[in-house]
Amino acid sequence: MSRKKKRHLIPDAINPVYHAQVMGRLVRRRMKEPGLTPGTLVHTGVQKVDRVRTTYLDFDPSHVSEAEVDSVDACFPFKSSPTVSWVNVDGLHEVDLVRRLGEHFGWHPLLMEDIVGTSQRAKVEEYEDHLFVVLPMLRWDAEHNQVDQEQLSMVLGDRYLFTFQERAGDVFNPVRERIRSAKGRVRSRGADYLAYALMDAVVDSCFQVLEAIGDRTEALEEQLLADSGQSAMIQLHALKRELIAMRRAIWPMRDALAQVVRDEEDMFTPETEVFLRDVHDHAVQVVESVEVLRDVVSGAVDLHLSMMTTRTNEVMKVLTIMASIFIPLTFVVGIYGMNFDWMPELRVWWAYPTLLLAMAALAGGMVFYFRKKRWM
Amino acid sequence: MSRKKKRHLIPDAINPVYHAQVMGRLVRRRMKEPGLTPGTLVHTGVQKVDRVRTTYLDFDPSHVSEAEVDSVDACFPFKSSPTVSWVNVDGLHEVDLVRRLGEHFGWHPLLMEDIVGTSQRAKVEEYEDHLFVVLPMLRWDAEHNQVDQEQLSMVLGDRYLFTFQERAGDVFNPVRERIRSAKGRVRSRGADYLAYALMDAVVDSCFQVLEAIGDRTEALEEQLLADSGQSAMIQLHALKRELIAMRRAIWPMRDALAQVVRDEEDMFTPETEVFLRDVHDHAVQVVESVEVLRDVVSGAVDLHLSMMTTRTNEVMKVLTIMASIFIPLTFVVGIYGMNFDWMPELRVWWAYPTLLLAMAALAGGMVFYFRKKRWM
Amino acid sequence: MSRKKKRHLIPDAINPVYHAQVMGRLVRRRMKEPGLTPGTLVHTGVQKVDRVRTTYLDFDPSHVSEAEVDSVDACFPFKSSPTVSWVNVDGLHEVDLVRRLGEHFGWHPLLMEDIVGTSQRAKVEEYEDHLFVVLPMLRWDAEHNQVDQEQLSMVLGDRYLFTFQERAGDVFNPVRERIRSAKGRVRSRGADYLAYALMDAVVDSCFQVLEAIGDRTEALEEQLLADSGQSAMIQLHALKRELIAMRRAIWPMRDALAQVVRDEEDMFTPETEVFLRDVHDHAVQVVESVEVLRDVVSGAVDLHLSMMTTRTNEVMKVLTIMASIFIPLTFVVGIYGMNFDWMPELRVWWAYPTLLLAMAALAGGMVFYFRKKRWM
Amino acid sequence: MSRKKKRHLIPDAINPVYHAQVMGRLVRRRMKEPGLTPGTLVHTGVQKVDRVRTTYLDFDPSHVSEAEVDSVDACFPFKSSPTVSWVNVDGLHEVDLVRRLGEHFGWHPLLMEDIVGTSQRAKVEEYEDHLFVVLPMLRWDAEHNQVDQEQLSMVLGDRYLFTFQERAGDVFNPVRERIRSAKGRVRSRGADYLAYALMDAVVDSCFQVLEAIGDRTEALEEQLLADSGQSAMIQLHALKRELIAMRRAIWPMRDALAQVVRDEEDMFTPETEVFLRDVHDHAVQVVESVEVLRDVVSGAVDLHLSMMTTRTNEVMKVLTIMASIFIPLTFVVGIYGMNFDWMPELRVWWAYPTLLLAMAALAGGMVFYFRKKRWM
Amino acid sequence: MSRKKKRHLIPDAINPVYHAQVMGRLVRRRMKEPGLTPGTLVHTGVQKVDRVRTTYLDFDPSHVSEAEVDSVDACFPFKSSPTVSWVNVDGLHEVDLVRRLGEHFGWHPLLMEDIVGTSQRAKVEEYEDHLFVVLPMLRWDAEHNQVDQEQLSMVLGDRYLFTFQERAGDVFNPVRERIRSAKGRVRSRGADYLAYALMDAVVDSCFQVLEAIGDRTEALEEQLLADSGQSAMIQLHALKRELIAMRRAIWPMRDALAQVVRDEEDMFTPETEVFLRDVHDHAVQVVESVEVLRDVVSGAVDLHLSMMTTRTNEVMKVLTIMASIFIPLTFVVGIYGMNFDWMPELRVWWAYPTLLLAMAALAGGMVFYFRKKRWM
Q: What is the mean pLDDT of the segment spanning A74-96?
């Protein structure tokens, strides 16, 4: 029961599930023992899908083929096929699948370890004939008011692109649609442009998260100004944490993209470079927006606190005025309530009205004093 | 009605319209779906004019011609004309207009996307035969006490300059006047000098915004010191936000101008470079002023809070002194107001005056104690 | 007794033992006099083991031999043996042992001084034919809720690796096991890969500390929200200190590893370089996590404070409402408790009920006023 | 009258004059319209002298001549004279004077604009055959307790040096004296050494301002500790602002001097370079001192606030103790002041002494309780 | 007397002597007029010894000679002697002495000015055949609980080393002892190694200051937690200032040493370079420790403040509970103390016990309400 009570005080955002999430985003590789052979494939993090699902899209300017495959072995031919192939894997807990792919395509053991070990920082690593990119995919979970984070790993080869996600559901459907319908440039360009298009979609989706956080900030702020309860405060605090977590995911993404733009990696054609510069610009904007939102949320908290201080001051003034006026008067009337035999002033008829007038004068003096002190 | 009440507490600066503005400045591309083909022209932001209006100024040292055109096709000849042409477009929602211009003049799709997609960061991008500049145009909206922000895009070619604004009304009239009247250097120099002159006007206009914010800070600060209400506090908080938003617009502008100065872009002649260095200096000053204003506003808030704390302390002292003196006395007179049969002290004639003296002594002792504690 | 009382207020985390630890981590070389000959071997810090214990693991792809030796002289042949030798020394107070080793293997006097002088910063120093690495080994001491820190010194030669620890017990057992069982790459690679494997284990163990701190933060935060006592506050404060101490240990470690990656030291083969890059990435993650945890702990403290302020405000309101309603009423009834002879209103029969009604009206007015002020 | 009242609360430092100054230091070029031709000479800022006064000092190792001239045309010959000439102009509002000089000596229009447009940042600009230096001259205005800021512009040619100040009165008299009396190196060296000597005097004068601020900080701090009024707080706040304004002037000065040292401008001989390095060192010290003073002032404010909090806590304790002891007792005596017919305890003779004892016991218990809680 | 009172409130650490010291460390060159010829030798700061004392140590691997000299002229031969000579001067007010030395050994006028003008920042300046080093010597003054700072200037020539201190007493005795007894390397190496040995002693002595500050922090922290008085707070504040002053001295020292290591000055042999790298490491540790101590002290202040807030909240709750329970009851008994003729309830026998029961119920209800609100 005390548990339930606490829940009442602690809104959803700070319940145990939430904590697991926040702390999970801080601490990497829970299950992996220190000292394990590097390159040991251990899936860390929560398994988010029941079954790993592998699909591919194979296309060149003139054709598209698309299918879900049962075994990744079906993707082996893409290594040397002249078409552009995009293989997407949803679910990371079948480490064997990743190992088979990695061994066929010649990926470094650490690369494979990073694919299955979630909570990596965003990064770009260049290998001899492929490029490894890790990006965070963010989504606003409106039910729990928190940022949902998933790791997207991309291995970009000369004519193929592998993407690994923690679960089904992503922001790539418009890109898939463009491939299917041959809209835009994506069909006529190589795997590098496809990789760019996916990065662009990932970065763009951050703006939706920012918008949701912005809306929530606005709502909480109005709530804070309207009533002085603790609930809005606690939720604003939770939002601040979401921004900490988001910031932690976003900064490395920006740096990784800056590295891609700067290094002019061989994997990207000069035409695609121009577009990468654009993605990088957007990532910079996301970072700036997170910082601004942090400022805005901090400002709201500060405003609330200073309003609290001001209100306490006002409340105190009312109390002090009331007490200062009536406590002395109560003392005075107490005097004449005493039962001493010898109290001559009780016997004269004009004593009572005189006392009433004196007390009125005293009260008036007090009011005048408080007005002078600008308390009234 | 509760809505109206809240409005009373929340001054204009934090009403919904305001929020939409602040948040809008934080989050880019509301309407654009993640995953859309890059280079898709989608107008984002609020449409601020009814009708797009296109005007041009074509001049060389010996002549000037000026007109409003119905169709942008009328501007196509400027591509190869030997005179300097400045085409200004007010309103961005007719994306088709931008596309036609872009295709004729050979602009990159991402450049065109940036022109119509407002809320870009200030930036400078160099293309083969043209330079793309995005700058924020700031204006102080005295009615709502907020910074009004508009995106200015400039495409600088060899002999032409295109400017795109979100609405009519800008700070360029003095420049136009100088062209018409052949005052200053602008008529005798190329499009690059014209671009510089416009940048200079944009940066200069920031000083007017700063001045308005400075004046408002001053007014609010006096209000804060004079009365202890919450209204000035909330408005100061709103001003802090305006500074956050302004800072966000100004920093990238400074960096973009630094890049122009540093890179010695081919588009600018060495003579114009000297002037660009000057504009950059001014941008640095704007940035510094924003930082200083942030410090000043924060200082005002801190001062207010510490004055509140001091005042609460004073109020508490008054209350404590009053209560500590009179509550014990009231207790004492209460004792002799009791109706016990056997209270021998009530019967002797000197009891009453003695008690009065004793109470006076008690009160005097209290006053002495509080004086010693420096509370009085 | 007063001592005991204070202890009650100050939880374990801030007791004298704790202080010695925190301050010990701040101040280096307590016992060493300024001005001593540099390179003088003086063991500083607390002696943590009774007896120095020296063990070695000597292996090549085809064999492993392992033993504990009584005298370090038994390790002298490893200097020129073609196998890879890993000598581990637990306990640093026998400075003579280190000197004999150093003289045989040709180590610089300052290197030897650093091995026995604990509380060094993490660092990497390159000498002609060996590399000196100092890293902190962190462990969460759940009993005292603090981070336990130990200095690990490594001297990496061409075919040998010496490790010096302050006490027995480390995170290297999995590595030892891999050597014994010839699992992974470690048997087939050189001493440099072994050094990498140990560094990896050290950095990985930091994540366990972070997880422990994360769990504790969470527990203290729930405690803070549930009750308003000072105990959770003081413990959160102690945790903040642990993070300061941890941060101090971790930042130099990151920089040292960055230096290894950047300098491409001759001691490491290019194959091992790839792995070092991975360790460096992990160190960066540790640093980021410490920063995030600092933000989280600070946020919790701030939230607590603002909740305190809000609660004080609420308490004040209740007091003010009660006092403002009843103090004037008490004054009024006091008036009619006075014993003046001439108080005509006491004599009329309707005076009493009228007064009761008037007082009810007064109280009602007060309630209405406080409701309007939103205090009730 | 309310105006006068407010003045009482707001010390001199925050009155309108002060505000104009602070804000004026933040906002540049009040009167200049955005869009004016660059290089338009417009005097901004307040005119501080009635009449522009032009003086020169012309010297070589063997002679000195000194005069005040009516027209700047008298200085034209200095352009090609073999002696070193220092022309000083006090007052900037006669823009025509600057234009004539500039045209004769071949200065860039922007340079001239910067001379007459005050509130420039400190900067160094290199032109083909002259160097343009802008430095702030600071002075402590003891009457208004604020930092007085003036712009010093220097144009350093091969054999001439022009200095422009906003008003008469400067820190250069010792330098003038050294020239007249041929003391030191200044007579035997070129114009560059003279420029250095002036810069040195400007930077040195900052130390006097710092000393004044330090003294004032000390005085205000003692005042803060001695009494708890708001006056010292407000003045400390005003001092904080002065430090913000000073910092804003000083940082660019340091950077400008660093640029001179780093660039090894052609205008300075290697012998003078050594001296410039010294000036730069002093500027760094000024910057550091400003930062330290900011820390000191902030610390004083923090200390005051925490003392206020502690005092409020103490005041509250006294109030609570008094109220908790006497309010229940007053209630008890109130009971026996009631006039019920049937109150048997009023009739027994031992009731009164028993009640007195019981009340003493109650009060004693309260005192014991508060002692246990360490409130007394 | 009011002076004495204030002294009671302001502990030793903030008395006028202290202020002179803190401010003196902020402001340089009190007595020197701006505009004086650079290189003018003016002793600034407080004269700390009565008489300047000059001693020398002259040694080579095979001999040592040591003496105190009356006139510095006795040191002139060291310029060309083949032995290593270390001349130490205690006291700086005889500027003539420094001038004579400087002229003989060919030092730059600015170098000499820096020797006698104390409060220089730590720095390293390279001249043609000598190196000038300024370092702060710190010492903990346990009596006044403050950091005592003295300027050490070193001029390192090829075979000689001059050191200038403000007063007698330093941390170099162990070095002197090593020279006399031919222990360690110092006798067999050149003047550069001697300079290193002194720098090492200076940096090492900082750790003792840090230890003292650490101990004091600990003591004050325990005091803060044990009682809530202002004394510990004020002293902690004073300690914070000491850390500001120390930080200001230490950062430039670190930078100066970094410069020595980086520049590989010609004055130092490669063998000594290795040792300099070690000194620099220690300086970095000192800087880090100062930062950590600042964090620790700030944390202690924050903890104290939050405990104050919590305690105030508790005190308020007690007051509110007492007042809320007894003030209404007192009102009720007041009603029946009134002397109206017509108060029928006074006449019935069961009125009194009923009222007592009703009041008990009211009090019980209050207690229940406060328990529900978790105030009790």
A: 89
- Alpha carbon of D200: minimum distance to chain E alpha carbons (Å): 7
Q: In A, which residues are within 8 Å of B339 by CB distance?
A: 339
Contacts with B241 from chain A: Cβ below 8 Å: 296, 299
Q: Which residue has the tokens 């510990």?
A: E232
Q: Do A317 and B315 touch (CB under 8 A)?
A: yes
pTM to 2 decimals? 0.84
Q: Which residues pair with A55 in a beta bridge?
A: A68, A88
Structural domain containing residue D301: 2-306
Chain B nearest C-alpha distance from A358 (Å): 17
Q: D339 vs B339: CB contact, 8 Å cut-off?
A: yes
Q: Could D210 and E27 be called an inter-chain contact, meaning their C-beta atoms sit closer than 8 Å?
A: yes
Q: Do A13 and A71 fall within a single domain?
A: yes
Q: Which residue among B287, B306, B325 closes a domain?
A: B306
What is the domain-level CATH number for residue D191? Answer: 3.30.460.20
Average pLDDT on D355-360 reads 94
Residue bearing the bigger pLDDT, A323 or D50: A323
Q: Answer yes or no: do B9 and B87 share one domain.
A: yes
CATH code where residue C340 lies: 1.20.58.340
Q: What is the ipTM of this complex?
A: 0.80
Given an 8 Å threshold on Cβ–Cβ distance, is B322 in contact with A328? yes
Range with the poorest average pLDDT among A173-187, B313-327, C23-37: C23-37
DSSP string, E27-90: S--SSPPTTPPTT----BS----SS-EEEEEEEETTEEEEEEESSGGGGGGGGT-SSEEEEEEE
Judgement on whether residues D240 and D357 belong to the same structural domain of the protein: no
Residues whose CB falls within 8 Å of the CB of residue B60, separated by 6 or more in sequence, listed in order? B82, B83, B84, B187
Domain total of chain E: 2
Which among E36, E343, E348 has the least Cβ separation from residue D174?
A: E36
Closest CA to D243 of D352, D149, D153, D156: D149
Q: Beta strand pairing status for D160-165 and D84-90?
A: parallel
Angstroms from E323 CA to nearest CA on chain D: 7
Question: Does residue E21 share a domain with residue E64?
Answer: yes
Q: Which residue of C has its CA nearest to E221?
A: C14
Exposure letters E196-215 (e unless 16+ CB within 10 A, then b): bbbbbbbbbbbbbbbbbbbe
Backbone torsions φ then ψ of C188, nearest 5 degrees = -90, -5
Closest CA to C175 of C147, C138, C205: C205
Which residues on E lie below 8 Å from C237 (Cβ)? 299, 302-303
Tally C-beta pairs within 8 A across C and E: 188
Of the residues B261, B289, B306, which one is the last residue of a structural domain? B306
* Per-residue b or e along B169-198, where b marks 16 or more CB atoms closer than 10 Å to that residue's CB: ebbbebbbebbeeeebbbbebbbbbbbbbb
Å between A308 CA and nearest CA of chain B? 10
Query: D244 and D335, same structural domain?
Result: no
CA atoms within 13 A on the CB side of E276: 25
How far apart are alpha carbons E331 and A143 in whole angstroms? Answer: 51
Structural domain includes residue E312:
no
The pair of three-digit structure tokens given for residue B355, joined into one six-digit string = 């008690």
Tokens of D35: 């869009």
Chain E CB contacts of C355 under 8 Å are 338, 340
- Residue B263 pLDDT more than 80? no
The alpha-carbon gap from A168 to the nearest alpha carbon of chain C, in Å, equals 27
Query: How does pLDDT run across A141-152, given as a tens digit for each residue?
Result: 888 888 888 899
The pLDDT tens digits of the residues spanning D252-285 come to 999 999 988 887 667 888 888 888 988 998 899 8
Q: In this complex, do D38 and B334 lie within 8 Å of one another by their Cβ atoms?
A: no
Which tens digit of pLDDT belongs to each residue from A227-253?
Answer: 666 788 888 888 888 898 888 889 999
Cβ D34–B171 below 8 Å, yes or no? yes
Chains that touch D (3 or more CB pairs under 8 A): B, E
